[in-house]
Amino acid sequence: MRKSEGPSSLKRKRPDLGTKNSSGGALIGQEKVLYDLICSKQSMGICTFDMKRETKFAESVVTKSLKSLQTKGLIKIVQHYQNKGKKFYLSNDFEPAKELTGGNWYRDGELDKDYINTLKQVCARMIQRKKLMTIEGIVESFKQSGAFKVELSREQIEEIVNALVLDNQVMEVKSSGFGEFEFIPIGKICYKYCTQGGGLKGEPKTGAMASIPCGVCPRITYCTPNGIISPATCVYYTKWLDF
Question: Which of 35, 113, 157, 231 sits in a 20 to 30 Å window from 103, CA-based?
Answer without folding.
Answer: 35
